[in-house]
Amino acid sequence: MIAFEIFFLATLFLAAGLGVFVYLNNSRRTTNQFYLVVSVFITLWLAGNWYTLNSLDAAWAKLSIQASLAFAVVIPLACHLLRLSVMHNQEHFFSILYRSRFLLLTTLAFMGMCFTRFVISDVIFCPGLNPSTLTMELPEPVYGPGFLVYVSYFTLCLASLLVLYVIDRKKLNGAQRIEMEFIALGTTCGLLIGVAFGLIAPVVIGSSRSVPVSNAISIIVFTGIIAYGIATRRIMGVAHILQRVIAHGLLVFYLGGLYLLVLEIATSIQSFTPFPAYLANFIAAMVTVFAMAPARGRLRVFVDRLFQGRSLDVAGTIQEATRMLQSLVKRDEMLKDFANFISKTFNSENVRILLADRGLFREANPNNIVSSDTSMKDDNPLIQQLKESRDSCSVDMLLRFPLTPRMKEVLHEMEVQEVSLAMGLYFKGNMNGILLISARNSGQMYDRLDQDTLQILCRELGVAIENARLYNQVQDDKIYNDILLDNIVSGIIAVDISGVVTVFNREAQRLTQLAGQDVLNQPLDRLPAIVATAFRSTLADGHGLRDADVALSRPNGIALQVRMGTSVFCGHTGSPLGALMVLHDQTAVRQLEAQIRRNDRLASVGTLAASMAHEVKNPLVALKTFAQLLPTRYEDPDFRTTFSSLVGQEVTRIDAIVNQLLNFSRPAQPSLKPLDLHDVLEHTLNLAQHQLKQLNIVLQSKLNAPRNRILGNRDLLVQVFLNFYLNAIDAMEESGVLRIYTENVVVPTGVRDLWGQAIVTDHIRVIIQDSGKGLSAEALTHMFDPFYTTKTNGTGLGLSVAHGIIQEHSGAIDVESTLGIGTTFSVVLPLTTEDAEK
Question: Is pTM, for the whole model, over 0.85?
Fold first, then answer.
């Protein structure tokens, strides 16, 4: 079987296959049914042509030619019925046939006429190569006078169809219009090819040799175009197809002509050179290749201009939409402008955008023709379909194919919403909104190119909506943070990594007495010196400052006591972004501390007064009693002797109480000099040595601190430690162990320097531990209260005075005690580097 016969049979089976495919695509639709009818008669017509080429008998050849003409005359009728099925897509098959009953009868009459000698009188075999049988005989029909009538009728039917297509197109909208356009385009192209090479050419050249090839080509064009218009789910408009066909056709014509021109020139030049023969073809091919890219771009621009106003400028539309979306940051304004842009670009009456909001899709651009309270639940059939398919939903497309129960619900919802096209707005795989577009004012449907363009625009809109949401969130957070910063009770200052001030809240302005506009977005030098130094140190080494009490100098010359803290803050990648400082005004704290000290002094005065009254009252009572007895018993020498002795003792006692009270309440400022604390401790132990031996108390002394030089008053310290020793001796009564030892310790100050390092000082600790009876928890809380004592003959002022002396030496006293085990006093004094006095 030769290649031509394979091509012809392939065309035959293609026509039949397309008919079956379109029919099965939606067998209930009248348009699909009539397309099958068209395919059947086209297949019969091709079969007649093929049989004619393979006929060796004149009679059978004549019959096959007559049959071919009879089947061919039905094709315009079938196209007419296909047209009516698009016009009246709700009517059934036989109703459409009834509408064309007169044309049907006329066509049947012409079919019968084709089998008479009036149209084909005879068939002869003429010399020539038969492309099917490879014989030198080719069947040629001898046309009768009726053949011109047949051609005239066929031509009239074709012209009538074309006129009706133009009229019908203006009456239709949406998918019906575009289907009619494709039927018109396919019919026009197919019939023009068939008439030109199958009817006119044989009459003009007197031979029908071109008929088989022209028939095959016309059928491929005819059936392919119409099948695409009927069965394709996302159809491309006729204008777009013509635009592409013309562009590619011009490109092929230009490149072909260029190739032949260069080949001719290269061949002419080659005749004068010794270069090989294939060089001319190589040069022509290379020139054509390099000319393809610029030619393609220029021809596309040329064709776009030809179709300007008829075809969508995809690139320009996307660029304009992108510029618009990038220029807007407010969501409502962006959605309104985008809806207006879509409405203007696609000539749509109404465009709505619904955004997801807590289980609902609410309308976000209410400035439209329909009601502004449109909302859909998340379980809406249209919403679910868009989420699952991630594709657009078009009413025109839904009506072209069989509908499942689910798709019927989707179609009903779109009709209720009065929309023709629905698309999802996606961002990172999630649908955060939908775009609802009404039908076009021009009546055209949204073809594949329109939907693809809208899909791209919807993706851009989805990203823009998310960006707008993030922008609004950032702005809200900024406002929120600004309000918090301005109302926080601490001063907040922040600088970026380059040392430019980015945050300077209201409290920081009050503390520094600097205006925000003079500091914000300015270098660190605008800040007070100590603040700038702290920032530079923090940015340099990355170590923050913690609770540093500093004096903040201000423009008015009055320094303010503040507590300062700094830290470095980093981004999500871990790289430092800048430094932050927090300032706390310590004025109220200092005032509160002073007030607490005053209250403590007042409370101490009250306690002291009550205790002093109690202590002084006892000797006064004795004096009063003897004074009352003196007049009556003055003559008694024993009484006078006792009275004289008692008065002296009680007055001495009162004087001692008053002196101790004066020492406690108004201690003299000691003169502090460098001294060796171990010498003071050893001297004090020597003073208490007699009592220790008398009560059989064992002394364990380990004065092992490597450093023991302090600034102190020797006499006062002797008084303090002697008091501790005597209290320990009294607590042990008879026998026991008294331990005295020293050690060097480091005491943190609780303050950090400007480099974030904790400030510590060197101290010496003196531990005085006895094995006495110990003290209760209640006694420990009143240990240093004046006139509080657990002794029967004590005044309760010794430890109070000692506490005051240690405080004057910048030291501290701590005490621990357990009943039945003993008491431990710990005295911590700061060391000095000065030489001790001998």
Answer: no
